């Protein structure tokens, strides 16, 4: 509170009170903090994108010469094993560079119409192998195979990152559930819930839920920050969820998290549905009407 007038005196000349104006600047501070965070995040993304591109150029040379070296070796050459190790390490490094590009939103994507259920079914075995034998895997797919415009490989990478984090949250095993469904985004919903200006409409959802230890509010608020991690030093770079966030945003979608300590965690990927879904329904309806009409004519 700031006094904008001198003290008020009574008839005896003694101070009797003050007049002032108090202003709640909580929302103003939040907006300023959000602007600073966005500016910082864009700077980190620019840095990550530049490093990833330069790193890719170096990897191209390493992979190229490594491949030439392997080709010139005999199958029984004892040194061939080391050449293959170089190429395997280069492939892993290339995946990391691709993840950095995805985080920086500078990675080229090849979006095509794809059903959410199809993505899950395609990689079920891979996800089960990540979880191991101590964790039960449950797939709860919606009857409607919602279509979205997406790069399947990129969305698969998001799911791998989420499932890997879920495994770490359940060191003694548990249950992981992947489900699909739909949600309708109203005007202003994205801004209200911190997802930016998202166009209203129908969104297809992939939910990844675990029965792990969960997260407190402080961790939830920072979970998508690059290089933020709750793991021990050397156990992770803190880029997995930041990369997932960048990939989903590049698909004009958003990702959110629900979690409480001791109650597990649920990540929800929201991707805008495409009109093909609606067109498909209309086509099926027309085909059913046509079949019904032909049957009626045959019975007449």
Can you tell me about this structure?
By secondary structure, this protein is of the alpha+beta class. It has two domains: 26-103, Helix Hairpins; 112-278, Histidine kinase-like ATPase, C-terminal domain (Heat Shock Protein 90, 2-Layer Sandwich), CATH 3.30.565. 50% of the residues lie in helices and 20% in strands. It contains eight helices and eleven strands. It has helices spanning 26-71, 80-103, 116-131, 152-169, 189-192, 217-222, 240-250, 275-299, and strands at 2-3, 8-9, 15-17, 20-21, 112-115, 135-140, 147-150, 174-185, 201-210, 254-259, 265-272. Strands 6-8-9-11-10 form a five-stranded mixed β-sheet, with helices on one face. Strands 1-4 form a two-stranded antiparallel sheet. Helix 1 runs antiparallel to helix 2, helix 3 packs parallel to helix 4 and helix 4 packs antiparallel against helix 7 (240-250). The chain is extended, with a radius of gyration of 27 Å. The N and C termini lie far apart (87 Å). The relative contact order is 0.10.
If you consult CATH, what is the topology of the largest domain? Heat Shock Protein 90
Give me the strand/helix succession: EEEEHHEHEEHEHEHHEEH
The helix count comes to 8
The whole-angstrom Rg is 27 Å
Which architecture name of the largest domain does CATH use?
2-Layer Sandwich
| Fourth-level CATH superfamily of the largest domain | Histidine kinase-like ATPase, C-terminal domain
Poorly predicted runs of 5 or more residues: 277-282, 290-300
Topology, element by element:
Blueprint lengths: L1 E2 L4 E2 L5 E3 L2 E2 L4 H46 L8 H24 L8 E4 H16 L3 E6 L6 E4 L1 H18 L4 E12 L3 H4 L8 E10 L6 H6 L17 H11 L3 E6 L5 E8 L2 H25 L1
Parallel strand pairs: 6-8
Antiparallel strand pairs: 1-4, 2-3, 5-7, 8-9, 9-11, 10-11
Helix pairs in contact: 1-2, 2-7, 3-4, 4-7
